[in-house]
Amino acid sequence: MLSVQKWHNEQLAEITVGALKKNGFDAEYFTNSKDAVDSVLSLITSGMTIGFGGSATVKGLNVAEKAAELGAVILDHNVPELSAEEKLEVRRKQLTSDIFLCSSNALTLDGYLVNVDGTGNRVAAMSFGPKKVIVLAGVNKICKDTEAGFARIELSAAPKNTNRLNLKTPCATTGVCADCNSEKRICRIYSVLKKKPSAADFKVIIVGETLGY
User: Fold this and answer.
1) Which single residue of 128, 138, 195, 203 has CA 20 to 30 Å from 19?
2) Is the pTM of this model over 0.70?
3) What is the reported pLDDT for 201?
4) Is 162 exposed, middle or buried (0-12, 13-18, 19+ CB in 10 A)?
5) What element of type H or E holds 5?
6) 2 pLDDT more than 80
């Protein structure tokens, strides 16, 4: 069973990496998260500013802590003691960071990155601003196409994230998107990156594991 899953992960990743490269992105596949994180850390030096887009994937891999150990300046708006105004200021600073680290809600077999944001800082930084953008994503986020990518967000990513954040939205209770009008709705900015943004240094790292939401 595990060998079949590993084979399937590799096949999906190979197709997606190839498509991402055709669309101008730098893309790479690692079978495990340790090697993927080591690859990211090899790009970080002391004094660099590293922005974090609020990704459960990146947080689960402890990248911020490891980057701080290398002397990087961490820009994380999810630090608990920050006020609302301070969180907003950190988000703005992320837009001009040396490296912006995030994940994507979905990757498609034709090499597109599909995302839905609430505040918009993540998709804004993915489009323009940071000196380098790195997207870390597990193979669980690979979808057939854009339509499947948005369907994945509605059925899996959005409900799980609202529940994780303890937000009072319908999907945080039912587990299914209701296209709500809640003030706490996190699905506000819809983005599809079909080609690498023209001014961006952009790398996508796919990991052969189930990561994040």
Assistant:
1) 128
2) yes
3) 98
4) buried
5) helix 2-22
6) no
